[in-house]
Amino acid sequence: MKSDTVTRLGSSVIQHGPSNDRVYLMKLVSEDTETIIPAIEALAEQYHYSKLFAKVPASAKDRFLAAGYRVEAHVPGMYEGMEDGWFLARYPELLRADPGEVTPLTDDLLRAAMSQSDGCQNGGISSDFVIAEAKQEDLHALAALYKEVFETYPFPIHDPAYLRETMDDNIHYFIVRAGGRVVAASSAEVDLTGKNVEMTDFATHPACRGMGLCPALLTAMEEEMRRCGIRTSFTIARATFYPINITFARAGYRFGGTLVNNTNICGAFESMNVWYRSLDGEVTHHRDS
To answer: Would you say residue 118 lies in a domain?
Structure first.
């Protein structure tokens, strides 16, 4: 299936299309605050999308709530370490708002993850593995790994051309090599204006799972993001996949909420958990409402 389109409404960045059957407001520009909701609604009506999903600063939250959106997750200090971020959703198709059987599974997972949420450092990895930030010459191997691991994905990370384009647009890809082969990867999607980063696109070759590669990648990415002046880190993780949730909990991330039936990944819609942490000490709450 063709990947969904990333484009602009006004100056704001959205993703939409039939793969995820939604409109996703990825980055709201303040000048669009008054016009973005009707623009999203018109697009959703045109294509009959079943979910409208928005990531917005606290200053825009009440407009979305008044338009019928509901809170699904919350990240303190997402914007510049001061203004909170909110993940909001509206469901034109009510069936999509039903989490179904995922709820008890997610509750189980969260109990397991948060029981390990002690802020301890993730363990080291064997010297056979080398972590590095990906370069242009790594992109074909990186795309091949993503294609092998994910049957479907919300963004076309199986395409080297897409990886090259996004690498030039504030996405840092990290890889783990073993014997010259790329065996694990992740990415850090940086919002330079908001000084936040989404830690995402974690993938490990089946032969190398259980070796601590994802935790090691996360640690490496956090170190680089601190050097870049990023203040808040978050992730959107598959709600029923234990390893990645526990990785973030063990690294000191806090649970921010669950996005219901949000993402087409590995061949089906899945609910996603939001986890977050400050990279520069305690988060300061401003304009949190």
So the answer is: yes
- Token pair recorded at residue 88: 């909001």
Handedness of CA 189, 254, 95, 150 (dihedral sign): positive
CATH of the domain at 243: 3.40.630.30
pLDDT at 173 over 90: yes
Alpha-helix runs per DSSP H in 72-133: 102-114
Based on the fold, state whether residues 79 and 108 are members of the same structural domain.
Answer: no
Phi, psi of 110 (to 5 degrees): -65, -40
Residue 144, both tokens: 């091949």
Are the beta carbons of 263 and 269 closer than 8 angstroms?
Answer: yes
The DSSP bridge partners found for residue 23 are 16, 52
Cα–Cα distance measured from residue 184 to residue 178, given in angstroms and rounded to the nearest whole number: 9
Q: Are 265 and 3 in contact (CB under 8 A)?
A: no
Q: Are residues 220 and 243 in the same domain?
A: yes
- C-beta of residue 222 within 8 angstroms of C-beta of residue 175: no
CA 234, 86, 271, 242 torsion: positive or negative?
Answer: positive
Tokens of 249: 């909990």
Are 230 and 196 within 8 A, CB to CB? yes
Distance (Å, rounded) from C-alpha 30 to C-alpha 235? 23
Q: Kindly report, residue by residue over 134-155, the tens digit of the pLDDT.
A: 999 999 999 999 999 998 888 9
Helices (H), the chain: 36-47, 58-66, 102-114, 139-149, 160-167, 213-227, 242-250
Q: What is the pTM of this model?
A: 0.91
In sequence order, the 6+-apart residues with CB closer than 8 A to the CB of 95 are 50
- Which residue segment(s) compose the domain that 181 sits in? 102-251+264-276
Residue 211 in tokens: 């070796």
pLDDT in tens, 228-266: 999 999 999 998 888 899 999 989 999 999 999 999 988
The token pair that represents 138 in the structure block:
């790594």
